[in-house]
Design brief:
With 334 residues, the protein is of the alpha/beta class. The chain contains 13 helices and eleven strands. The protein has helices at residues 3-16, 28-39, 51-61, 79-89, 100-106, 108-117, 132-142, 186-204, 224-239, 251-255, 257-263, 281-293, 320-333, and strands at residues 19-22, 44-48, 69-71, 123-126, 153-160, 171-176, 209-213, 244-249, 275-277, 298-305, 311-313. The strands form two sheets. It has a six-stranded mixed beta sheet, sandwiched between helices. Helix 1 crosses helix 13 and helix 8 (186-204) crosses helix 9. The protein is globular and about 65 Å long.
Length: 334
């Protein structure tokens, strides 16, 4: 399931001709994915790491990295430019010792993020060995959030085959935020929805219909959580009036037309939502894993969003195929 959308994403990536830097370059999966993606011409790739170490690991594993550039801070000719850029943007905490050159040399994902920021590459992918915290820290410090968006968040593409009586052909949904912000405020939830709509449309080509999810539909319950979702929906409508959005909605009222007619007959969604924004990380993370394991959905991501340049985080359990797909997605986010 989901193969058609993944095939389309890879086909679009080939046409985009982007340059993507790959962290964790001594990971066998990353090296194999780099070889596959290079041969498939999904993007021009650069491996981030010490040249001799990466070459040695690749040789031991029997993986050819011919035609794939290796880059590191120690030998980078424009390192001074990256240091000056980082020094200008980084605001150290009071009492913190800040050595920009040392940080860049020691943290390859920060180095990659600054390469993207300064236009040496188009995007960055890491996380097969590094922690999510390392990836996000590098992204926020090296790239920063997009103007008008206060938070970095994420969206999963959930790919499904046809479901009798519900959808008659393969379909793709967006689930956010399922991996970054534990308990977003109403304003942050609005940012997640706005960024999620843009991510979903850019990757799938579909017009986003956004459902702001809750355990309540249209006032059937009143709690701090439901009020947060209602406020977030209002913020999105004020900031992006062209977006198709409604909330608060239960999942069935957002996804099943017959139930929407009963529970939310005046909703602009009418059971046709394709982007689902969860009220907190508990709900989002639990839901995408249930959809993946019981609903037989194929989860692609998480796709980080809200940054000035694309930088994505892989699960440390990612397969080679997962990494290849994320190379294509990172290229398409540019």
């Amino acid at each position: 399931m989901g193969l058609k959308i993944l095939d389309r994403l890879q086909a679009k990536a080939k046409q985009a001709h982007r340059h993507i830097a790959l962290g964790d370059a001594i990971d066998e999966r990353m090296l194999r994915a780099a070889r596959i993606a290079t041969d498939a011409k999904l993007a021009k790739l650069t491996l981030l790491g010490e040249t001799t170490e990466v070459q040695s690991v690749a040789k031991v594993l029997g993986i050819s990295i011919t035609g794939i550039e290796i880059m590191n801070a120690s030998s980078f000719s424009a390192l001074d430019k990256l240091i000056a850029s980082y020094q200008k943007s980084r605001k150290p905490k009071e009492g913190e010792v800040f050595d920009p050159e040392k940080e860049i040399r020691e943290h390859h994902l920060l180095f990659g993020a600054l390469l993207a920021r300064e236009g040496f590459v188009d995007g960055v992918l890491g996380g097969s060995l590094s922690t999510t915290g390392d990836v996000i820290r590098g992204a926020l410090r090296g790239i920063g959030t997009r103007r008008g968006i206060s938070v970095l968040s994420s969206l999963f593409l959930m790919c499904f085959g046809k479901i009798d009586g519900v959808r008659e052909e393969e379909f793709v949904l967006g689930f956010g935020d399922c991996s970054v912000i534990p308990d977003p405020t109403a304003e942050q939830l609005a940012d997640i929805a706005i960024a999620g709509a843009a991510t979903y449309e850019r990757l799938t080509g579909n017009t986003p219909h956004i459902a702001m999810l809750s355990f309540s539909t249209k006032g059937s319950a009143h709690t701090n959580s439901t009020e947060k979702v209602i406020a977030a929906t209002a913020f999105v409508r004020e900031r992006e009036p062209s977006l198709i959005i409604d909330g608060e909605l239960q999942f069935d009222a957002a996804f099943v037309p017959s139930i929407a007619k009963r529970k939310s007959k005046d909703s602009p969604i009418q059971g046709d939502a394709n982007v689902f924004i969860f009220p907190n990380l508990d709900a989002g993370n639990i839901s995408y894993k249930i959809a993946e394991r019981l609903g037989m959905g194929e989860a692609v991501g998480p796709v980080l969003q809200g940054l000035n340049k694309p930088m994505n985080d892989l699960s440390r359990g990612a397969s080679v195929e997962d990494i290849v797909n994320m190379i294509a997605i990172t290229a398409l986010q540019v």
